[in-house]
Amino acid sequence: MLNIPKQYSHFAFGIIQSGLTCAIAAAIANIPFLSEGTFAVHWFKALMLSWAVMLPVVVVAAPVIRRLANSITR
User: Fold this and answer.
1) What is the CB neighbour count within 10 angstroms for residue 17?
2) Confidence grade of residue 71 (pLDDT, cut at 50, 70, 90)
3) CB 3.0–4.6 Å: which of 1, 10, 14, 27 could bond 59 by disulfide?
4) First to last CA, the chain
5) Is the pLDDT of residue 1 over 90?
6) Structural domain boundaries, residue 46
7) How many Å apart are CA 6 and CA 70, to the nearest integer?
8) 12 part of a folded domain
């Protein structure tokens, strides 16, 4: 296991969450390429592009979203 200090848990969360979300979304978006046999190539390109865009968004937005969720719940 990696020994990442707790103070960086926010970044670890962002990396994992954005990667998983992008992988699933890219897979769904590229289902039409299954019949052509080019699904993996298209999926990987879509994953890398979407992850590059979403990782900074998640890292910046997650604390704001967490505070908002905490403020509207008990």
Assistant:
1) 15
2) very high
3) 14
4) 34
5) no
6) 41-74
7) 21
8) no
25: amino acid identity, one letter: A
| Tokens linked to 62 | 């997650």
Overall number of domains in the chain:
1
Tokens at 14, concatenated: 């962002």
Helix axes 39-72, 9-29, angle to 10 degrees: 130
Break the chain down into helix, strand, coil percent, rounded to 5. 85, 0, 15
pTM value is 0.78
Question: How far is Cα of residue 46 from the mean position of the Cα atoms in its chain?
Answer: 12
Domain membership flag for residue 31:
no
